[in-house]
Design goal:
Length: 421
């Protein structure tokens, strides 16, 4: 969060959070300074001002000042950290066969994570009720105050209107088009809700959790194909309307006439997604016993060297590679991460995509490009959601909300915000 901690030098309006307080907190949140002396040195603020702001942040329960475990002679230094009790972020990653939920503290540490088995075609009410109930239980089981959920971030596997908080004409998601996802979750979890495309969050998770270099392009190959783009400065690039990265309906290079759920023919998502590969091999996606039967069966066939399965995967990889090569020219990413069930099959998919990209793209765009499968084992969307949530909480607007939401239970008197000026 060094590059994008949201602490710009803009003017401080009435009712907003003092700049000095934001600077102090920003240095602690980014890890750039962990004690009062360091903060004073790095911020250029007077020690007395730093002291006032730190006292205030400790008083409201946002920061904690503890004795360092580092053994030094004399008095142990006091170290400032975000208080683990200052708030909770809830993250939801909705997918076709099931959804994942997690709760984390404001240092992005995951406290609990679970899978909720509800198919996306059961409709938004069934899915959102199930994930809210599970989150409420996780909060209770882990002694997290439900009144201190600071933000809920949910990723949906389709085009998302980021401003309105809903999906827009997603394929294979009956009932979700325009459904007020943010409102539904806000009513149950009583916190601000952000709705984003799932691959945007996965891409952010790769940068914040797996520490992948930016600019980064993440491609998810699952029921469909989608991508998320992180800019050089670490922000999600959503485009003008939130549709950036929706690559599943780009026409595949082979010019096939396979019909896509969107109504067009030859879309790369209809030709080379995990679902398309399963269909071409006659493998059902799920059975009564195993909601992820298709994923498991394809992995088994590939691992055993079944030539038909290997051929289908490599053919899909080549189609994807052609599209990815175009994207590499367009965005010149430093890192390309492949995610979704197909990316976890030995190295067949990744190496075939790599081959297609290197054959197509020009040397300047590929000489420092890393192409890899995700190492986050299906958790990148949750990590990205948590990262987005904490960024919002520590943004100037989020911070004003956070300070207004306190005092802590042990300090019922409102602590006035000291103004150094
Ligand atoms: Zn299509």
């Amino acid at each position: 969060m060094h590059k994008d901690d949201g602490y710009t030098e803009e003017a401080v309006g009435p009712g907003s959070v003092p700049l000095a307080l934001r600077r102090v907190l920003g240095l602690v949140v980014s890890g750039a300074a962990t004690n009062r002396a360091e903060i004073a040195r790095r911020s250029g603020l007077a020690r007395s001002t730093v002291g006032q702001q730190v006292d205030h942040l400790v008083g409201t329960g946002i920061l904690e000042e503890v004795e360092s475990r580092r053994s030094v002679r004399g008095r142990p230094p006091r170290v400032l950290t975000i208080s683990p009790q200052a708030g909770t972020i809830a993250a939801i990653d909705v997918d076709t066969a099931d959804s994942q939920v997690a709760i984390a503290d404001l240092t992005r540490r995951i406290i609990a994570r679970e899978t909720v088995v509800v198919r996306i075609d059961a409709g938004p009410q069934a899915v959102l009720d199930a994930v809210s109930e599970r989150l409420q239980r996780l909060l209770k089981d882990n002694n997290r105050d439900p009144g201190r959920v600071r933000e809920v971030v949910v990723g949906l596997p389709g085009p998302v209107d980021f401003q309105q908080g809903c999906a827009v004409q997603p394929t294979g998601m009956p009932g979700w088009d325009g459904y007020p996802v943010a409102e539904h979750l806000q009513e149950r979890l009583h916190a601000p809700v952000v709705v984003d495309n799932d691959v945007n969050l996965m891409a952010l998770g790769e940068v914040t959790q797996a520490r992948m270099e930016t600019p980064l392009l993440c491609i998810k190959i699952a029921t469909g194909i989608g991508s998320g783009l992180i800019t050089a400065t670490g922000d999600v690039y959503r485009g003008a309307d939130g549709a950036a990265g929706d690559i599943g309906h780009i026409r595949a290079v082979s010019g096939s006439n396979v019909l896509c759920a969107c109504g067009n023919v030859g879309c790369v998502g209809a030709l080379a997604s995990h679902r398309a590969v399963l269909r071409s091999l006659g493998i059902p996606e799920s059975t009564e016993d195993d909601p992820l039967y298709g994923t498991h069966e394809l992995a088994r066939r590939v691992a055993s060297g079944d030539p038909t399965a290997l051929h289908a995967v490599r053919q899909a990889a080549t189609e994807i590679g052609e599209v990815v090569a175009m994207l590499v020219h367009m965005f010149n990413p430093r890192t390309l991460v492949l995610a979704g069930p197909l990316s976890q099959l030995r190295d067949d998919l990744v190496s075939a995509v790599r081959a297609a990209v290197y054959q197509r793209a020009l040397p300047l765009a590929t000489r420092k490009l890393t192409i890899t499968a995700t190492q986050l084992k299906g958790g990148s969307g949750l990590h990205g959601g948590i990262a987005l949530g904490t960024r919002d909480v520590f943004s100037p607007a989020g911070l004003a909300r956070l300070l207004a939401a306190e005092p802590t239970p042990d300090r019922q008197d409102r602590v006035p915000i000291p103004d150094p000026e």
